[in-house]
Amino acid sequence: MEHERKQSTLVVRITGELDHFSSQKIRRELDLLLADPGVKKLVMDLKEMTFMDSSGIGVILGRYRTISRRGGTVAVKNMNPQVEKVFLLSGMDQIIKTI
Amino acid sequence: MQIINQMKLEFLSMPENESFARVAVSAFAVQLDPTLDVLADIKTAVSEAVTNAIVHGYGEKPGTVSISAELAMDGTLDITVSDRGRGIADIEKAMQPFFTTQPEKERSGMGFSVMQTFMDQVHVDSFPGEGTTVRMKKRLKER
C-alpha cells in the first residue's frame, strides 16, 4: 500500500484484493498511518484494487469511524465496477464521498 | 436439468484459501462464457460464503470447507459451499443486513446480503453443531 501525506490529508493507494485474509494486513497498515491525529482527511484511491468483498466494507467503515471521531472526512476514488457494487450495496455512499 | 460439467473442491479453513476458492469457481464458470460482470458476481458471492465458513463455521478450530459446482444445459451454475463447523442457530437473523456476531472485529454483517444480491438464488441449511451448507444459483447465459 502506497501513501502520500499533504498537510492534514492522507492519500492511500490500496492495491490487489481486499478480502478477509488481506484485510488484516491492510487494517494494520492503515491504523499505523492514522495514529497521527493530524490526519483529518483520508482519501482511498482504489484504482489498483482488483477485488473487494464485505470484509473490505468493515475495513473502510472502521477507518471512517476513526476519522469521524476527530471531525475529519473519508473519500474514495477510482473504484472498479465490482468494488463499486459492493460499496453501494452496503450503503457506504451515504456517508463516504466518492471523488 | 441435465448437467454438462461438475467439480468438487476441499480445502482447509485457512483465510489464505479464500482467494483460491473464488478464483477456482470463477475459472470453472468461464467455460459457459459469461460476461466479466457475471464472473465478478460469482467471485464475490463465493468469497462471502467461504469467508463465513472459515470465520463463523470454524473460527479458531480448523476444519475443511467443501465446494461443489455444476453447470447445467440451461446455462445455469449451481454452487454449494459447506462446512462441518458450529452451525447457525437462527438463519433468518443471520441473513439480516448488518447483523454480525463479531462487531468488535469489524465484520460488516453484509455477507449474506452480498450473496443474495450477486446471485439469483441463495438457500442456507444449518444445524448447530453440525455445520452449514449454502446453495447458490446463477444464470450465466440467457436461454
- Strand-pairing-aware structural class of chain B: alpha+beta
* Low-pLDDT residue spans of chain B: none
Strand count, sense and closure of the main sheet of chain A?
5 strands, mixed
Look at the structure and name the CATH superfamily of chain B. Histidine kinase-like ATPase, C-terminal domain
- Using only C-alpha atoms, the radius of gyration of chain A works out to 12 Å
Biggest interface: A-B, 21 and 26 residues
User: Could you state the oligomeric state of the chains shown?
Assistant: heterodimer
How much of the residues of chain A is beta strand, in percent? 25-35%
| CATH domain topology of chain B | Heat Shock Protein 90
Q: Can you tell me the overall shape of chain B? A: globular
Strand order of the largest sheet of chain B: 1-2-3-5-4
Fold and architecture overview:
The complex is a heterodimer of chains A (99) and B (143). By secondary structure, chain A is of the alpha/beta class. In chain A, 40% of the residues lie in helices and 29% in strands. Chain A has one domain: 2-Layer Sandwich (Transcription Regulator spoIIAA). Chain A has helices spanning 20-34, 54-69, 81-89; strands spanning 2-6, 9-13, 16-18, 41-45, 49-52, 73-77, 97-98. Chain A has a five-stranded mixed sheet with strand order 1-2-4-6-7. The radius of gyration of chain A is 12 Å and the shape is globular. The mean pLDDT of chain A is 95. The longest helix of chain B has 23 residues, at 36-58. Chain B has 143 residues and is α+β, with helices and mostly antiparallel strands. Helices cover 34% and strands 30% of the residues of chain B.
In short:
Chain A is of the alpha/beta class. Helices cover 40% and strands 29% of the residues of chain A.
Descriptive terms for the model:
heterodimer; A: 99 residues; alpha/beta; Transcription Regulator spoIIAA; two-stranded parallel ribbon; 3 helices; 7 strands; B: 143 residues; Heat Shock Protein 90; five-stranded antiparallel sheet; 4 helices
